[in-house]
Design goal:
By secondary structure, the protein is an alpha+beta fold. The chain is built from 9 helices and 10 strands. The C terminus is likely disordered.
């Protein structure tokens, strides 16, 4: 309700992020709970809104072609020289995902890139209901069918390693496996990561083994630093840290004007409602004056009613006139010779004059 006791109405739209249902059946109860949380978040913002009715509800379902593995793709030279991956040469099949998993479960000392080394273990993996080549969206289903395995997937793109899938069972199951997804044109290929330390070690100047976070791929020099980092980082989705380019990695302070104190600042906040045509209509505003002068500090003004923007600019003009009058007031300066000759005092007076002239 406004000061004029007129009830305001608005139309709100709520959105639920897309859900991939290939791994398990669509959880309508969870989707409903997410929608209810969005509505509660909107109504609890302090504006006093109440939901009166739901006019429409749309559920959009689509079929997409997910990223999936395929036959052999050679390892890029810059990755190959790190000796951090095993790339099984499945020239005639699309089983690169299965071979990469088995290469991790059954490490071989010889012929690590030969698919025949792992053929005898193929029956160990439960691939029920999972099509080959295995799509990224099918990995959660694979983890459900194989409860001792958790999988993270990185993609190698533009000479960088970017996490595209992070298991919710990461660091919880006995067999955690990291895969690197290579691509060439519209063709993708899974490879096994045998050492995250060597794969992303070039992101740090540390000379030696690093301890890499499975979520953000940041390499730590010591294990205890990684353990301190994990509880916070694991709460968030997979992240990609982008480092600055060479010659752009030095920050310099060049905002000299920000070194001088500002005598007055005005902070304004508007309230508005959405009309039936979707346009935002201001219903009121609040303005706070902050000043380094105690006698002029913390003045609050609020307005709610008609012609909000006109009233806002009118008030800002009044504040401008008041502040200019305050700043134009001449005060007597202590011209004591001893104080004027003090270097510290001269420096202070210089900054004072510069501040008043700048504003």
């Amino acid at each position: 309700m406004s000061d004029t006791d007129q009830q305001q109405r608005t139309t709100a739209r709520f959105y639920i992020p897309p859900v991939i249902s290939s791994a398990e059946s669509l959880d309508l109860q969870n989707l409903t709970a997410t929608l209810q949380n969005s509505i509660e978040s909107f109504t609890s913002r302090g504006s006093g809104w109440n939901v009166s009715c739901i006019r429409s509800l749309s559920l959009c379902i689509g079929v997409f072609r997910p990223t999936a593995g395929s036959s052999f793709i050679p390892t890029p030279a810059e990755i190959f020289k790190k000796k951090a991956t095993i790339n099984v040469r499945n020239h005639n099949t699309n089983d690169c995902f299965q071979y990469s998993i088995l290469a991790a479960l059954h490490p071989a000392t010889n012929h690590q890139n030969n698919p025949y080394t792992y053929n005898k273990y193929l029956n160990e993996l439960d691939m029920t209901g999972i099509q080959t080549p295995v799509a990224l969206s099918s990995i959660p289903k694979f983890e459900i069918r194989n409860p001792t395995i958790s999988i993270n997937v990185l993609v190698y793109e533009k000479k960088d390693r970017i996490p595209v899938y992070t298991s919710k069972f990461c660091n919880q199951r006995p067999n955690h496996i990291n895969l690197l997804l290579l691509f060439k044109g519209d063709k993708f290929h899974y490879t096994l990561i045998t050492s995250l330390s060597r794969l992303v070690g070039d992101k740090t100047q540390h000379d030696g083994k690093t301890f890499v976070c499975q979520y953000c791929l940041y390499p730590f020099a010591t294990e205890h630093c990684l353990q301190n980092h994990l509880p916070e980082c694991s709460r968030h989705p997979a992240q990609h840290i982008q480092y600055p380019e060479k010659n752009q990695n030095i920050l310099k302070f060049n905002k000299i004007q920000h070194m001088f104190p500002v005598p007055f600042v005005l902070y304004a906040d508007f309230e508005s409602f959405i009309k039936t045509d979707g346009e935002h209509e201001p219903s009121g505003f609040c303005c706070l004056r902050v000043s380094k002068f105690p006698e002029h500090d913390h003045k609050i003004y609020t307005y709610s009613g008609d012609n909000v923007l006109q009233e806002f600019f009118k008030y800002i003009k009044q504040e401008q006139d008041t502040i200019c009058k305050i700043l134009s007031t001449n005060l007597p300066i202590n011209t004591n010779r001893r104080k004027v000759q003090s270097p510290r005092r001269r420096h202070h007076m210089f900054h004072l004059r510069t501040t008043l002239h700048y504003h």
